[in-house]
Design brief:
It holds the Pfam family Fasciclin. This protein is an alpha+beta fold. Helices cover 18% and strands 13% of the residues. It is built from 5 helices and 7 strands. The chain has a 7-stranded mixed beta sheet. The two termini are 15 Å apart.
Length: 228
């Protein structure tokens, strides 16, 4: 098992420990996508919020890309971005606008980060709990996405900002999704998949398929040397 796959296994365990079972299930239901396998920060609504959401068939990847940032960022890094900063999501042409009013009131678009740093075991995946589902209408900048490039040193506490030059994502290895043995076992999604949310006593049990800105900070997140 390579290091990236180990990080995904560790992250899903941490998500489950924090009771984000439905988000883990969506990760396992999504088609293989290297953008969701490592070098990523997940923004996770809880089970109750996801139970009230209807996903169209085949839209799981779109949802996860919209709820992720293409670099592993601890909350102490996010806190350094001032209000009106825009952060790229893993979904092309979709940005998150920061409203930074301190640790207890840090907002990305329409949601607040309420449970920071839930995934810390690995080096290439971070995750934070949020108090809602990110709106479908993203904050867009131009007709392109801002790609991420690996950091020069995986031990750097922060990723530096730089203008959107002609940078590309680095090649990534192909992890073995079959090794996620500690996540819930899920069947292949069909046209309709009722009752796919794990039973929990404190939340509903169903998930259906069916301004200009004052300034915009484009930044690239450098993540090189994730492996030793």
């Amino acid at each position: 098992m390579d290091a990236r796959n180990q990080d995904l296994v560790a992250a899903t365990r941490e998500m489950q420990k924090a009771n984000y079972f439905t988000f883990v299930m969506l990760i396992n239901m999504s088609p293989f996508d290297t953008r969701l396998e490592g070098n990523v920060t997940f923004l996770m609504p809880n089970d109750r919020m996801l139970a009230n959401m209807v996903l169209q068939e085949g839209s799981v990847s779109h949802f996860l890309l919209r709820h992720s940032i293409p670099s592993p960022l601890l909350f102490e890094v996010l806190e350094q971005f001032p209000t009106e900063t825009t952060i790229p999501t893993s979904l092309p042409n979709c940005m998150l606008r920061v409203s930074n009013n301190g640790r207890r009131n840090y907002v990305l678009n329409n949601v607040k980060v309420i449970s920071p740093d839930l995934c810390v075991a690995g080096t290439s995946i971070r995750c934070h709990g949020i108090d809602g589902v990110l709106s479908e209408v993203c904050t867009s900048v131009g007709n392109y996405s801002v790609p991420a490039v690996p950091c020069l040193n995986s031990t750097e506490p922060l990723c530096k900002a730089s203008p959107p030059n002609s940078l590309t994502f680095p090649p990534t290895s192909t992890p073995d999704r079959d090794n996620l043995t500690h996540s819930p076992t899920l069947s292949t999604p069909r046209a309709t998949v009722p009752n796919v949310v794990p039973h929990r006593s404190d939340s509903p049990h169903w998930l259906s398929y069916g301004r200009p800105l004052n300034f915009v900070i484009f930044f690239m997140l450098y993540v090189i040397g994730m492996y030793h």
